[in-house]
């Protein structure tokens, strides 16, 4: 009996940290600010604005690209720091987000969405399944982890 009680208490103690880390719904105001940050970033990415990248990516970023490479913010920013944004009328593809899902996990937000790259000339869409972990710092959201996966069947998202 003593062993059963001890085992139960040990199991209970071990499960407490897990219970504390369950995801939950993101409050409407927080959702609005995360979606606004994502939209602002995607606009900046569309015009190749280094400032948008600098603001959105956290210093400790881990980025896993759709081509299967993993790197940090310094590598991502390499070559962008001194570049000028592209004028809107010269943009070749616009990036937007669809099917946005958010989950709160402590102070972080888990972001899942479909990234859509729309070619300006042809109107063709290419889609990626992206996910990230964002934290709020100095009043704005930053991605500390990001994963981009090329959508298996882009044709299904063009409907």
TrEMBL record:
Keywords: Signal
Stretches assigned to the DUF4440 domain: 47-142
Leader sequence residues: 1-20
Pfam families, A to Z: DUF4440
Alphabetical list of InterPro entries matching this protein: DUF4440, NTF2-like_dom_sf
Protein name (database record): Nuclear transport factor 2 family protein
Organism: Pseudidiomarina insulisalsae
Lineage: Bacteria, Pseudomonadati, Pseudomonadota, Gammaproteobacteria, Alteromonadales
């Amino acid at each position: 009996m003593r062993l059963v009680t001890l085992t139960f208490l040990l199991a209970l103690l071990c499960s407490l940290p897990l219970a504390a880390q369950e995801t939950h719904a993101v409050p409407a105001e927080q959702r609005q600010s995360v979606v606004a940050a994502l939209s602002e970033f995607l606009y900046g990415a569309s015009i190749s604005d280094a400032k948008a990248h600098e603001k959105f990516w956290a210093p400790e970023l881990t980025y896993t690209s759709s081509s299967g490479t993993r790197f940090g913010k310094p590598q991502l920013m390499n070559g962008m720091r001194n570049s000028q944004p592209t004028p809107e009328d010269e943009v070749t593809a616009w990036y937007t987000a669809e099917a946005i899902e958010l989950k709160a996990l402590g102070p972080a937000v888990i972001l899942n969405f479909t990234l859509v790259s729309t070619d300006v000339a042809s109107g063709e869409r290419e889609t990626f399944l992206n996910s990230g972990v964002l934290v709020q710092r100095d009043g704005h959201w930053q991605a500390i982890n990001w994963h981009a996966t090329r959508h298996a069947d882009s044709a299904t998202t063009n409907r």
